[in-house]
Known about the structure:
Layout lengths: L30 E3 L2 H10 L8 E6 L3 H4 L11 E9 H11 L4 E3 L2 E3 L2 H15 L6 E4 L11 E12 H4 L3
Antiparallel strand pairs: 1-2, 2-3, 3-7, 4-5, 6-7
Amino acid sequence: MELGNKHDYAKKVHFTYKDDYDIKSLCQGDLLRITDELKNTLGEIHPYFLNDQYKYFMVLTQSCDLVRRAGNKCKTPYITLAAVRDFDLFFEDLLVRNKYVESVNGLLLIDAKNWNKAYQLLERLYNNTEPDYFFLYKEDALGLPNSMIASLKVSIALKSELHYEE
Length: 166
């Protein structure tokens, strides 16, 4: 996980994040910044994900399959990464897509019945009980100034032997 540096952990981080991490190995749930190397790979293999809405990627592959063994190779031939974007924009899009709100001249309008549905959806997302999504809490100590969401079905696969280091 390439977020912040270890000195930023003077404060206790939210329980969904590790207090300590190893930047030399990947684990399921790690958040990856989009580095220049990763941008180059995405440009060749998955150019759609160079879109500015995608801020990070989350590792979905199981940690046991990512352990580097003799010869510095891991068990899995592919590393699966989920797209991560800002929560606020995602949630607004989801509300409009589910027809809980109506967008009129840049304003979101909602009635009482849909407000309850939207609130329940927000609770499920926030508590990570909504299938297909994983909510990431704002965490200044990790350099995450906004809450984000990983869309577990919006994922890509990279060949581990070629792209593990990226």
